[in-house]
Automatic annotation (TrEMBL):
This is Cupin domain-containing protein. SUPFAM superfamilies: RmlC-like cupins. InterPro entries: Man6P_isomerase-2_C, Mannose-6P_isomerase_type2, RmlC-like_jellyroll, RmlC_Cupin_sf. Residues 19-123 form the Mannose-6-phosphate isomerase type II C-terminal domain. One of its GO terms (biological process) is GDP-mannose biosynthetic process. Pfam families: MannoseP_isomer. It comes from Pedococcus bigeumensis. The lineage of its organism: Bacteria, Bacillati, Actinomycetota, Actinomycetes, Micrococcales. PANTHER family: MANNOSE-1-PHOSPHATE GUANYLYLTRANSFERASE.
Amino acid sequence: MDRSGDVSDLPDPRSDIFTVQRPWGNFQQFCSNERVTVKIITVDPGHRLSLQTHDHRGEFWQVLDVPIEVTVGDRTWSAAPGEAVWVPCHAVHRMANKGDQPGRLLEIAYGDFDEADIVRLQDDYAR
């Protein structure tokens, strides 16, 4: 997939995810030969990230450990471990941990990554 054009037209990358079985178990491939930024985000119990948007990237999230409350656009739900979430460029989004142990998400950002691209609409930490 060529994602070098307008980031608002990024296709949802969840359709490219696949799992390969091996004698020792398996691996899940999320992207190949793409310009991306990859993070693991840990959200402490009782905390949430700002309600935000980005002008220059879309984000793919894979919930790793515990259920995480996610908001994308007008929808908010509890995403289960293993669930894949696509956050299109310009979409209002947030993640929160309502549980009692830290929760992690794998984040793959497609497009031009820059922390200055965060537009905070609400923030619990007055940033």
